[in-house]
Amino acid sequence: MLARTAANLYWMSRYLERAENLARVLEVNQGLAWLKAARPGEDMAAPLRLTDSEAAFAAQHGAELTPAALWAFLGFSAHPASIRSCLARARDNADAARDALTGEMWQAIHATWLGMQAAIDAPPADPANFADWVKERSQLFRGITYGAIHRNDAYRFIRLGTFIERADNTARLLKLRYRGHRAGMADHYGLMALLESVSAQDAYLAVYHDTVSAPKVAELLLLNPDAPRSLAACFAEIRQILPQIGGPRGRAAKKRATELAAALEYGELQDILAHGLQNYLGEFLDQLTQLNDELHAAYMEAA
Amino acid sequence: MVRVGAFSAIRSVLSGRASMAHPLLNIGLMLVCPECAAMPSLPPPNPGLYDEMFDGATPRAHYAAYAQWLDGLSDEALSARQREADLLFRRHGVTFTLRDNPALDRQIPFDIVPRILPAHEWVQLERGLRQRLAALNAFLHDIYHDRDILRAGVIPPEQVLTNPQYQVAMHGLDLPNRVYAHVAGVDLARHSDGAFYVLEDNLCVPSGVSYMLESRKMMRRLFPELFARLDIAPVEHYASLLLSTLREASPVAQPTVVVLTPGRHNAAYFEHAFLARQMGVELVEGQDLFVQNDRVWMRTTAGPQAVDVIYRRIDDAFLDPLAFNPDSLLGVPGLLSVYRKGQVALCNAPGAGVADDKSIYPYVPDMIRFYLGQEPLLNNVQTWQLRKPDDLAYVLTRLPELVVKEVHGSGGYGMLIGPLASRAEIAEFRQRILAAPANYIAQPTLALSTCPSVVEAGLAPRHVDLRPFVLSGGDIRIVAGGLSRVAMQAGSLVVNSAQGGGAKDTWIVEGA
Amino acid sequence: MKLHISHRSVYHYPERVRHSTQCLRLTPQSSRRQRVLSWQLGLPARASSGRDPYGNCQHVLTLDYPHQDITVLATGVVEVDEALADDVDDELAPLVFLRQTTRTAPSAARLALAQRHAEAVRQHGRHGALSLAQALAEQPGAAKDSVGASHALLGCLRALAQPARYVSGYLSLADGGEVAHHNWVELWRDGVWASVDPMSLAPAGGGHVKLAVGMDELDACPIRGLRRPSMEDMLRQAQHSAQQ
Prior knowledge:
Number of helices of chain C: 5
Oligomer: heterotrimer
Distance between the termini of chain B: 32 Å
Shape of chain C: globular
Number of domains of chain C: 2
Shape of chain B: globular
Largest sheet of chain C: 5 strands, antiparallel
Strand content of chain C: 35-45%
Strand content of chain B: 15-25%
Largest interface: B-C, 31 and 29 residues
Helix content of chain C: 10-25%
Structural class of chain B: alpha+beta
């Protein structure tokens, strides 16, 4: 497959996944609005810190953090990190790789873009509905991809984009929201919000049958291969996908992915906590960036 | 009653050149029609013009079954189908991109009333197209080799050799099957005399075939009952014919074929992706290819892979920045050096455009006689060449009636439409002609035929032309029909892209 | 006259590039007036050679790995018959060389000047062209280099319906002196290509070695290249060190 097409497919699915993750984060964040008084600004600003757009937000909306302003900025504005921009870029990448998509896949992503444009013109009264719509569209696309496309390299680069982006998002959220040593109501809700942001509240209960505690949340999202958005689950997929890509290239990426996957599969939470979770996650994100660069160098560089 | 304007004109939806001008800005044809009016539901007779469906008030024989079916359909039902079609096209993302705003995709208006031709009439057209393409390819081979037609004095040598479309790079190259124009989109129009005329032979990078195929898909979905009732010739095998044609352009046994696009901001990008997908080949941009050791390579996830045939949808000037336009980022540096060694095939061949130049068009009937020893089966539009003093003198006295075109111009910039021009415009254009007469040709204004089309108030006649696609490889292959282009807008003098030049499905019907 | 030529070009990109493709017209060919006794190109990688549309010897050099510098060395010995100022070849129909390019298309002022020499060019060919070249050189704002002067002369000759082509080559400036890259013009007259050097205002002599011909500089220049990913004009630091 064409190197440029691989890049287009990979980034198409990264942006789509990013839009979905951001929708989930914004939705959960809105539910936390009442905590604002207890922990001024901290949780409300999480979506901005996650997308590295606090300064841009302040320039446009001032210091006042309201759910409505957050939605306007990270949902509908032309800011590069917004859901709107993510969907536009997903669609542009899909358009550039249009010959590699099935008609159904193209129509799904094109219709999402048309829907986004309609939402810009008439923003929905209830942002939660919009968040649901974004998640639905992303899930629909994944479903169509799973059901419609031949299991070729196109399929593999699309899946690769999904899991790399998802691992990135989970690691960032955990880094942002994890508060290991404090206790109290606010932390409880913060942890719940974290679980909800990665759709892991049910998984948590199923695994631990217990009230939320910080170490267990960390263990679930880092090491549990059955929680769909855990780092272990993402890397179990990535490790499987990489050797299936045709051709001799990508040794460095394959090696790094295998090492990361093994470390997550056999890692122990106590070692991670001893090392410091923030340190661990910082190093993990660096590794992820390097993996992304290695994938680009091996497969996706057109010139 | 809806008034339909005194004059209307079609702008070609699509042109033969890929990236020089926006396809929709190319004024392909001009027409003048008497004032006519639309009745709800039934198109009225249209005096002085040929209507594809009606002869007076009676449907023509090949439209009888369709007209009968249409009679049973209410206005509301018709409008509902039209709306459904619009929605489907939008959902499928069948678009072209506006040149002045690349971020904006525009949908090609689609009309659900088919343009029907009886099979016996199509057979005649097809024979004429085969003959014409055989002669045009023979001409191209000749002018890049021995130049017999120039030596014989049939065409003045400077008309060909100083033409900007003549590519010195093609000199002496031997192409498989001696084919230069592998894909041609020949624009035909029916005049008020009922006969078809060739308006233009588009031999560079003609587009529009995806709209032909999408239109058919749409019609099958909307009107399965009509396809069950009528014997309509299929077009869906076009992509497989195209792939065979492209493969035959290479001496290699199992050649690797790619489609080369200028990128997704090109007006015809949808079509490039569509054809690549239909053929199951890679859609590449210039940046995906490079040249090394006398081969062209594409960058893939598994490393460089050799390419044997490039179906290029970019113009000659942009193919190779080291041989042509040095500013072009669209092409492949060094491509021409590999091509000249026969190690890659380009379809269509560079330099094919000299044969569809307006200054060469008047000679096509002579080419047919010269190379094939036959009389032309398709009509040329009468053309005055203003480099000839007699033609110039005649045309200057008739400017208000004629269309004057710039010979190498694409796009409607260097053009005078006499019947639509003011006195001042005619006077100004006369000066331009006098300054460089050899740059212009003149033709009579054609009265294009009409075909009923869905408008807000029901049906009304709209002008149509026809672009069949002719594939030349080891054989000449043509799918029955082509793209019927329709001027959707009435009342405006020139229907421009933003006002909508649209498409219709074309049905070649047996036993009609 | 025997000329020993050594021509070294160094191209330096401001940043490392991943890929570049160069088109080289750096190999002279034997013809009626020049005989190539020996010639060698020193290149950083294997290049494929062939003939370009104008019959010139052309090498395509592709470097598909990260690099920042390209050095090209051309060396050899060419014997020139100084008595012959004209050349023959049968590559292309001379009429092709009536076409103007963006580089040759004459301004209105030059066109007017050309018209004043129309008769001389029509009747006397090369001598007419030489007087035209002189008139062009005397115009205010006349080109000071052989590229510009050749383009100006070509534009005028073609406007006068006189087929003419651009020549790129080497010029030995004086006996035992420097050899430099140089450009001049040839016009089609009586079945031969007659040379006119708009800088020396004389026919090509014993010091002119022809490398390549074309419609204009773009077709004939010794090195024309492009790089990826960035295609902006590359910073060219070409150092010509040549000696006889």
